[in-house]
Amino acid sequence: MKNLIIFTIVLGAIFVEGQDDFQEETDEYSDGGAACECGELYQPVCGQNGQTYSNACDAECNQTGLQCEGECPCQGFPSNFATKNQRLCPFVIKKVCGDNGKTYDNACKADNDDVKIQCEGDCPCAENAAVGSDDEGCPSCCSTRSPECRRQRVDCSQCSRK
């Protein structure tokens, strides 16, 4: 357990150091767009699919959760990583408020809990706050039907179709 905590801290420091690049890369491939650029850092992880990946970014790029640190097969310790139906989230703090009233560190973590985003920032949301609100308080991405709205699971049900 102590080794897992130390690994998590070291991995966090690595991700924080390049968080802008990692966030940008995550945005690029999470919509099925451009190819991943994970770098050549070799810190092997075992994916939920039983395949060894060179690092956590490479596993995320291949759309698999992680079973354990190190090469496959995992040796008798439980996974503290994303489950098969979740994606790995960057260590970026850009708080969002979910429709369940809970504040999440970022949109990815809210999405992993299958929660729609009500607004950016801490809960509770201001009366007219939303992800890029228009004059009526509706998320602007609702009227444009932007992929960002779908990716962030923004609730557009209260908005009239324009």
TrEMBL record:
Residues 1-18 form the signal peptide. Gene3D superfamilies: 3.30.60.30. Keywords: Signal. Pfam families: Kazal_1. InterPro entries: Kazal_dom, Kazal_dom_sf, Serpin. SMART domains: KAZAL. SUPFAM superfamilies: Kazal-type serine protease inhibitors. Residues 20-73, 89-124 form the Kazal-like domain. The keyword Metal-binding does not apply. The keyword Transmembrane helix does not apply. Transmembrane segments: none annotated. PANTHER family: GEO10195P1-RELATED, SERINE-TYPE ENDOPEPTIDASE INHIBITOR. This is Kazal-like domain-containing protein. It comes from Tigriopus californicus.
